[in-house]
Amino acid sequence: MSATASFTAEAATTPQVSWGDCKYGHGYPVKHSDGYWYCQGGTYDGQRIYGNTGY
Hints:
four-stranded mixed β-sheet, 55 residues, alpha+beta
């Protein structure tokens, strides 16, 4: 498997968490410069948050 194929497969399976999951895991939502939200810190650090509105 090439590096590109393995990266694509990994990116496709990146888990997404809810706003509540992020906060419950002791993280906080941060808006990325590309416009999406991700969880910073805590259990779900670095995971993308689904939905586009926060608390």
